[in-house]
Amino acid sequence: MTKKITNHTKPLKIPKIIILSSKFIAFLSTKWITIYASKLFTTPIKHKIPKREVEMDQKSIQQMIVVSSINRKVNVYEYGKSNKKILLVHGWSGRGTQLCKIADEVIKLGYSTVSFDAPAHGKSPGNSTIMVDFIASIIEIDKQFGPFVIAIGHSLGGMSVMNAIKKGFQVKKAVIIGSGDIVEDIIDDFVAKLELKPEISKLLCERFEKKHGGKMDDYSAYKAAEMTLIPTLVIHDENDPEVSVKAGIHIHEHLKNGELMLTKKLGHRKILADHQVIEKITNFIEN
Question: Which stretches make up the AB hydrolase-1 domain (predicted)?
Fold first, then answer.
């Protein structure tokens, strides 16, 4: 019997025109395709805010702040009025209101949330960004709006939370949902989707390392997990089409104080609004 594939568990496809243009540029020059692919990799898509996020957007106190370490501006959302603060970090091509269902529930428990549009996302200016910018934004927001008791991150936001903790960001507990893990695997997958030769992955890694310093694997979530002592809840869907469940399992294996929740048929984004997932998060926070 063939397993039914829902819209939530279908992988997002790269438009054919981008694949064809990538192949053409690769035929002309390895250098040019490396530059072109790096531009594609670091350019998020800005989506219109969906109806379910409008209430959080309207009820939040918002301000644009400067993240001085990267000289970028991010739009910050303060939601709720409690001094017990939870930081929410969205994923690639997301927004500061994307975790609104989680925010609504933790506010009922007596917390408030702070979230942000990462550089080049949502209302924050710019066209391109990378995980380094997400991490720097978390650390700056902690300075200006912290301290935080909990940090919750989705997808790239989960990887960024783990790396921020590794860099000294202090919270009592962390939750990561649908998080990526090994950076080189993410780049390999991106290059494969563009239908380019595997050697382009290596060239992309070298380009990013030269620009941002360090090794790409230094930013892998499992590396940060090895150094994370606080209780950390890892949530991942077995049918996630964008980030393999292997990532969540591997991160959990490297945590010293970790808990793993695997879901089914929720995919990469629907998982953020699932009532069982949110109940698991609230119980984890409270107990």
Answer: 86-179
Q: Is the pTM of this model over 0.85?
A: yes
Q: Do the Cβ atoms of 212 and 132 come closer than 8 Å? A: yes
Contact 236, 177 (CB under 8 A): yes
The residue ranges of every structural domain in the chain are: 11-41+183-214, 52-182+220-286
CATH topology of domain 52-182+220-286: Rossmann fold (3.40.50)
* Residues 118 and 99: beta-carbon distance below 8 Å: no
Let me know: does 87 contact 151? Beta carbons within 8 Å: yes
- CA quadruple 93, 140, 78, 243: dihedral sign: positive
pLDDT tens profile 56-99: 999 999 999 999 999 999 999 999 999 999 999 999 999 999 99
Helix runs in 4-146, H state only: 16-28, 30-41, 54-59, 100-108, 131-145
So what's the pLDDT on residue 12?
66
Q: Are the C-beta atoms of 104 and 115 separated by less than 8 Å? A: no
User: Which runs of consecutive H residues, i.e. helices, occur in 131-244?
Assistant: 131-145, 156-166, 183-193, 199-212, 221-226
